[in-house]
Specification:
This protein has one domain (3-368). The chain contains 13 helices and no strands. It has helices spanning 3-32, 45-67, 72-100, 113-124, 148-163, 170-189, 204-231, 240-253, 257-261, 266-288, 293-312, 314-326, 337-368. Helix 1 runs parallel beside helix 8 and helix 2 (45-67) crosses helix 10 (266-288). The radius of gyration is 20 Å and the shape is globular. The protein starts with a helix and ends with a helix. The relative contact order is 0.17.
Length: 369
Amino acid sequence: MNQRYVILDGLRGVAAIGVLVYHLFEAIAFSAGAAEQSFYNGFLAVDFFFILSGFVMGYAYDARLASGRLSTGGFIRRRLIRLHPMVVMGILIGLVCFGMQGFTTWEGQEVSTGMLLSALLFALFLLPTPLPFDVRGNTEAFPLNGPHWSLFFEYIGSLLYVLALRKMPTRWLKIWTAVMGIALLKNALFSEYNSIAYGWSSEPYNLFGGLLRLLFAYPLGLLLSRMFSERKPAPTCLPAFPLCTLALIALMSVPSLSTLTGIQPLNPIYQCLTVGVGFPAIVWFGARGSVSGGRLKAVDFLGRLSYPLYSIHYPLIYLYIHWLNTGQHPFGTSPWATPCAIFIIAIVLATTVLLCYDEPLRRWLSKHF
């Protein structure tokens, strides 16, 4: 493995932890009826994931697909083996946690067996759940494990890459990225959210907003990969991983600028600039860095942990919201006791799933398929 890109994998882990923290604060705000949460722009980690995916796809597969050493079918098989085992595990954990809540919607209505099985079937095939089968009543595209909406778009991104984007000349890829960036900003400026935070709901306008996020960030990552390969920038002697980590956390930690200033367009403008300029700068700089020794093992492990953590953490957030709404305090009455416990449980569970399920199963699938 090229050590320069171990840093990018590690940053994926940092972003996954950021998503966990974002959802913990979101649960607190949701229960309190607050309009906004503290870690306001933490959701931008998803756009960072899309950029990283586009970058890694270009680096890992462009040459092999172009030369015929890897077929389109072989690429799709690799992506399924890489992604779908954790999709299944995430859904099963979501089903267990939903059962711990009593198999009821947020309003307390019982969910029929047929409705639950339908939602489960859609989820296992990573298809957005039609609104009549939304078992939570919150219009989520994946009500058993909400963040799987981004994995749905990750699959779309992989298909777009292998069928079209990789064949697109760099000049046209630049035009595509620019047009999609403008479309993303325009959609956010005139949206009810005053944000680019779309994709999680089965409502058509919401899914469209999520698609725009993918169609901008994923090709942007591929474009970065091509430019990096062509220019071959010199390695940096600076500590790339710590600096990139601080920059990533700082960009996600910016509060709602629209709320602070009263100027509504500031949020979508900031978010589009972060995705279009800030994140690419982090990826470019991170790709030039290197790590060694014990730090290499730690950064590599962060990268390995990122996908399991992202895939399994949200059912625990559902439980947390349920406990908040029902006045339960399983880890003590301190306001930080349950969030800290959920954070630790998520890390431990993700590590266990990674070592005992995800990596062994993917090795077996790669060997036999």
